[in-house]
Structures are given as structure tokens and as C-alpha cells.
Automatic annotation (TrEMBL):
CDD domains documented for this protein: AdoMet_MTases
Protein name according to UniProt: eEF1A lysine and N-terminal methyltransferase
GO biological process terms on file: methylation
NCBIfam families in the cross-refs: MFS_SpdSyn
Similarity comment text for this entry: Belongs to the methyltransferase superfamily.
Chain spans, region Disordered: 379-400
Compositionally biased residues, Basic residues: 384-394
């Protein structure tokens, strides 16, 4: 027995009857005109179905009379606001539905699922001990009548158990047969809202080109974790033809942080060079497993078509593109959690050609590579025979293990090393080069300075002991007579040195070079490097105290807030009379070179001579490396503010 509340003149009951789904259907409505119209329309054609004039807030049926109560839009029509009188009316409606429904029976409510409507229904019936499941039954698209998706709440009546019985709340999206369990009404409302936003987005993208790039995550069905990150990029400059409307670009694993794929400008350039009016870039997440390009294409083909541009010809073949035709290689070598840095991973990824790179990534900011090192490809020793063809070859997906310490992967590290040509004094480099580096990461920067400047004595300050372990185990870092790591807060370490003013535990009181390459743990600030306290005037004055008069202070600044950046530069100018800047092309990083004395200004000729002298100092016998990029930075990168 089925009860339809607020039936109106809908054809739903008639269609259910005619299809043989059920015949014992009672329809009620408070409109006398509607009831007469529907009685005349059905008449003798549907003898077992009845239409009754009745108020659903006060029904005449006995208790537990129906197995099913069906509501198509009636709750949406009543719950138009959250006024006290409206909520009281809805409570009466729910109470009456509960009264006339048998235990084990179901209340089906067809709704557009506005947040306040869904929340009210879920909270009421879950508190009564009912099982609540929300089904998405219709999405957006050309075949659909509505822009917004349609949902059905399925509430199954159970006897109320005294005490605090666990709530059972589930959502079953349109593309899934298996429901997903959620913990609270708030989570259920949020899950529905995500699908509503997606439907609105698809509707918008199907009608007009998007002026700004749109991004969204597609999540794994089982875990709910992001599986794909999509960016929709339109290129107005591309003239549309039959074959260049739309394409999908799969970013190889591990390369999503590169400028071309990881920045808005890079993706815009990629879309224009690919020659498509709309390009959807797809980034793959490290926590997920993928069955090659064909598997990804099969998995995404239906979903990405919902993001197609206006004017896409019917049955148009949409190409899937990538670099080199594969999905890349990503091998997670180590995963752990630090009390200070949070969850992090060390992973090996394949770059262009045969190059592999090892990366340290903090998962709180997963699109930023914290540290990176190139891995050495093993080469046969002189006289060593080649591997016989019948022997098993190493897997092409297996990255090499040794770190190439001669190579600086990070562009800002190259610029920081190049800043050594700004050292004052009669010689390009002093006989003893005292260097202080605040921020260890994977250790590439201090290790490079140590290895290629034999006169360098390097002190590294790192607040997180986990990073020292990571650098030592995974990035080839080691300590020695000329390299010491001090586990301390950089603020405290510099302040103590400035206060002492003397040699402390074999640590020089003054340095030729001080480098800050330390990230901020506070993601709410518009400056991710360094933490704001490191660029406050009192602390910068302490930095100047421990810097030799002819020395240089090198700061890696990553600041997206223009006003904050100007304030930082103004503070630096107050403390350091001579300031040079080097912007890293394609990145937010800006390297600042600060001199404590205005007498240290150098003309381009002198700067070039020092750069070449520094280049010669880097050439060590038996240590082959490509130093041309450092020389290029030295000669071209430093501009006077």
C-alpha cells in the first residue's frame, strides 16, 4: 500500500500504476479542484487507485497503515524558509508520515535538496532511529530537464531504541551503485552540495567559455580521497574547427608541480600550444593506483564529456594527450609524519628522457616541492662487460638510488649560490668562508656549498629533527668537520649568537654568508617563505650583527601578497642599505641579496669578474659537473633595486 502526499496533478501515480509497479495507491491533496480533476482523469481506467481530499498534517488513516509514503516535491514546497511556524508545520508533516507508516516501511521524498530542506529531514528522521539514504537520481546535461540534480531521500522506519543508537546516514551518487556511509548530517549535506555545485559548473561550461580557469577534484569511490585534479582551460585565441574543440591532457605522475602544469599561466600556454579551444588537464594523485593510459581514459571518458565546451559536434572523438604517451613513474620511497612539519613523503619521479628525481613533499601543501635532487643513472665501470641479453634486465620503472650531489634542481638554489659573487673584499672568495644556512630540507643547498667551496665551513640550523633524518637517509646528506647541523629554532639560534658576540662552541660569531631558506608552517599567511618573524626589523638587525661588513645575507622570499611583500622589502631596506633582487622566472620565489654596507656596490664589470673567479673556484679536479647555469645566473640575474 502506497500513500502519495500532496499529489497535485502529477502523472507519477498514473505511470506507476500503468507500469504495474503497484496498484494500491492512495493520493491525497488539500485542493478540492485538483482531486476532482485527477478523479476524472483516472476514472475507471485505474479502479484500485484513489484520490482523497485530505490534509497531510492531520490524516484520517489508522496507525501503521502504509508500507510506502511518497512525496514528490511537497516537502520542498512547504519548507521554503526556516521560520518557526514553517518548521512547526514540517514537524507535524513528519510526525503524521511516521504515524501512518509501518515499521520497515519507507518514506521516499523527491527533492532538489536545498541545504536547509535536506538538513531538516535528515536530522528529524535520524534522531527517530530511522536509516537515511540520499540517492542522486538525475544529473545535469542535455538529456536532463533541470540544471540542478534531483535527489530522493529514502528513510526506512525502525523502532526507536532507547538511549543513543548510532545514526546510519548514506549517500548513493548517480554514478555509483554502492552507497557511501557518512558520519553526520553536516557531511551528508556537504556531499550533496558538492554534486549540486558540480552540476551548476557543468551547465555553465556547456553554455559559455570560462574566462578564469576552473579546477575540481574527482574522488575515489571507496576512500573518498581525491583521485584526479582537473583544470579546465579555454583558449579564446584558438579558432574553432571540427577537430580542435576539446582535448584531455594527462599530466605524467610527479610532474604536476612543474611550471607548465602547476601554474595558471603555464596551463594557459600549454592549451594554446596544443591548439585546442578547451583543454582539460588531469593531475594524478600519489595515493592512488592507475592502470595505465588506457585505464585512465576508460575511467574518465564519461566524466570529462560533462565538461565539454559549447558547440562540440555530436559524436566528436575527444583525444587524450600526454607527454611521451605514458602516465609517468612515481615511486613513494618513504612516508612519515613529523610533529612540526606534518605528514610528508619522499618520492622518486621520472622527468624528461631518462632523468629521475627524488623529492620531499609536505602533504599539507602537496603541490609544492620542498626539496629535490637528481638521481644518478648507473654507468658501467671501465672494462665491465655488458649485460647478456638472456639475463633479466632491470625494470624501466625502477629509479636509480644514488644522489647526484653536483646538480642543483631548484632554480632558487642556483640563484642563492650565484649571490656569492656579491661578497666584498679584495678577493672573490675569502680563505675561510663561514656560511650559515637556516633551513635544511633535503640538504641540497648546504651540501652543494660544502662540496664545491673547499674553504667553506657550513653551519645549518633546522628546527625539525625529522628533516635531518630524511636528508641523511634519502638525499645523501652527511656531516663532517666543515658541516654541522644544529637542531634549533633559527630565531633562537641567531638571537643567541647576536647576544654572545663571541665564538660559541666552535661556531663563528660572524659569517661571510647567511642564507635563509626556511618555509612557514602557517598556510593562512600570504607568505610561505620565510615565516613572518624572520623578516621583522628587530630580528633582521640581529642577522646584521652576525654578518661580516663585507658579507652577504641571502633570503628566499615566497610571497603572494603584494602589500606584504612591499612591507618586507621596506623593512629590509631599513636594515640593509644595499639590496639586490633576483626574480625566479615562472615561480613566485624572489631571491634577495642584502649587504650590510652601502660601500659594497659593484658595477657590472666588477660583478662579471667576480662571477668568473667564482666559476673557477667551483671547478674541482675529479668532480665533473655542469656549472654553466650558475655562471649564467651570476652574470645576468642580479639587478639593482
Amino acid at each position: 500500500q502506497v500513500l502519495v502526499v500532496g499529489c497535485g496533478n502529477s502523472e507519477l501515480s498514473e505511470q506507476m500504476y500503468d507500469m504495474g509497479m503497484c496498484e494500491d495507491i492512495v493520493n491525497i491533496d488539500i485542493s478540492d479542484a485538483v482531486i476532482r480533476q485527477m478523479q476524472e482523469r483516472s476514472g475507471s481506467k485505474r479502479p484500485k487507485m484513489s484520490y482523497l481530499l485530505m490534509d497531510m498534517l492531520q490524516m484520517d488513516f489508522p496507525d501503521a497503515h502504509f508500507q510506502v509514503v511518497l512525496d514528490k516535491g511537497t516537502l520542498d514546497a512547504i519548507l521554503t524558509d526556516e521560520e518557526e511556524a514553517t518548521l512547526a508545520k514540517v514537524d507535524k508533516m513528519f510526525a503524521e508520515i511516521s504515524r501512518v507508516l509501518q515499521v520497515g516501511g519507507r518514506y521516499f521524498c523527491v527533492s532538489l535538496a536545498q541545504a536547509h530542506v535536506l538538513k531538516k529531514a535528515v536530522e528529524y528522521f535520524s534522531q527517530e532511529g530511522w536509516v537515511v539514504r540520499v540517492h542522486q537520481v538525475a544529473g545535469s546535461g542535455d538529456k536532463q530537464q533541470f540544471v540542478l540534480p534531483v535527489f530522493v531521500y529514502v528513510m526506512t522506519k525502525f523502532r526507536k531504541i532507547p538511549g543513543s543508537a548510532p545514526q546510519i546516514l548514506e549517500i548513493c551518487p548517480e554514478e555509483q551503485d554502492k552507497p557511501m556511509r557518512v558520519e553526520s548530517a553536516e557531511q551528508l549535506v556537504a556531499a550533496v552540495r558538492d554534486r549540486q555545485h558540480y552540476a551548476l559548473l557543468c551547465s555553465q561550461l556547456s553554455k559559455t567559455p570560462c574566462g578564469e580557469q576552473v579546477s575540481l577534484d574527482l574522488c575515489d569511490k571507496e576512500s573518498g580521497r581525491p583521485r584526479y585534479t582537473l583544470h579546465v582551460v579555454d583558449s579564446p585565441s584558438v579558432k574553432p574547427s571540427r577537430d580542435n574543440h576539446f582535448a584531455i591532457f594527462i599530466i605524467p605522475q610527479g610532474r604536476e608541480t612543474e611550471w607548465l602544469f602547476g601554474t595558471e599561466e603555464g596551463r594557459r600556454q600549454l592549451a594554446a600550444s596544443a591548439g585546442f579551444g578547451r583543454l582539460v588537464t588531469v593531475a594524478l594523485h600519489r595515493e592512488q593506483h592507475y592502470e595505465g593510459m588506457a585505464g585512465i581514459q576508460a575511467e574518465l571518458s564519461g566524466k570529462v564529456m560533462e565538461l565539454a565546451p559549447p558547440g562540440l559536434p555530436a559524436r566528436q572523438q575527444v583525444p587524450f594527450l600526454s607527454v611521451g604517451g605514458d602516465i609517468g613513474v612515481r615511486t613513494v620511497q618513504h612516508r612519515d609524519t613529523s610533529p612540526l612539519s606534518g605528514e610528508y613523503v619522499v618520492e622518486d619521479v621520472k622527468g624528461d628522457g631518462t632523468c629521475y628525481f627524488r623529492r620531499l613533499i609536505f602533504l599539507r601543501n602537496r603541490n609544492v616541492v620542498q626539496s629535490e635532487a637528481r638521481l644518478l643513472v648507473p654507468t658501467p665501470l671501465p672494462g665491465q662487460k655488458k649485460r647478456r641479453k638472456d639475463k633479466k634486465k632491470p625494470s624501466p620503472a625502477e629509479p636509480p638510488a644514488a644522489i647526484d650531489k653536483s646538480y642543483l634542481c631548484c632554480e632558487h638554489h642556483k640563484a642563492m649560490v650565484a649571490g656569492l659573487c656579491l661578497l666584498g673584499g679584495p678577493d672573490p672568495l675569502p680563505a675561510l668562508l663561514a656560511v650559515l644556512v637556516v633551513g635544511l630540507g633535503g640538504g641540497s643547498l648546504p651540501l652543494f656549498v660544502h662540496d664545491y667551496f673547499s674553504q667553506a665551513c657550513v653551519a645549518v640550523v633546522e628546527i625539525d629533527p625529522s628533516m635531518l633524518e630524511v636528508a641523511t637517509r634519502w638525499f645523501g646528506f652527511s656531516q663532517g668537520d666543515r658541516m654541522r647541523v644544529h637542531i634549533s629554532d633559527g630565531l633562537d639560534y641567531v638571537a643567541k649568537l647576536a647576544a654572545e658576540g663571541t665564538v660559541l662552541q666552535n661556531i663563528p660569531a660572524q659569517y661571510d654568508v647567511i642564507m635563509f631558506d626556511v618555509d612557514s608552517k602557517d598556510l593562512t599567511v600570504g607568505m610561505s617563505c620565510p615565516p613572518p618573524a624572520f623578516v621583522e626589523k628587530p630580528f633582521l638587525q640581529k642577522v646584521k650583527t652576525i654578518l661580516k661588513p663585507e658579507g652577504v645575507f641571502v633570503l628566499n622570499l615566497v610571497c603572494r601578497d603584494a602589500r606584504l611583500k612591499e612591507a618586507v622589502l621596506a623593512t629590509l631596506r631599513e636594515v640593509f642599505p644595499l639590496l639586490y633582487t633576483r626574480h625566479i622566472e615562472g615561480e613566485v620565489n624572489e631571491i634577495l641579496f642584502c649587504r650590510p654596507s652601502p660601500e659594497g656596490r659593484q658595477d657590472p664589470t666588477e660583478l662579471g669578474a667576480r662571477a668568473r673567479a667564482l666559476e673557477e673556484a667551483l671547478q674541482q679536479p675529479g668532480r665533473p659537473w655542469d656549472s654553466s647555469y650558475v655562471l649564467a645566473d651570476m652574470l645576468q640575474a642580479v639587478k639593482i633595486l
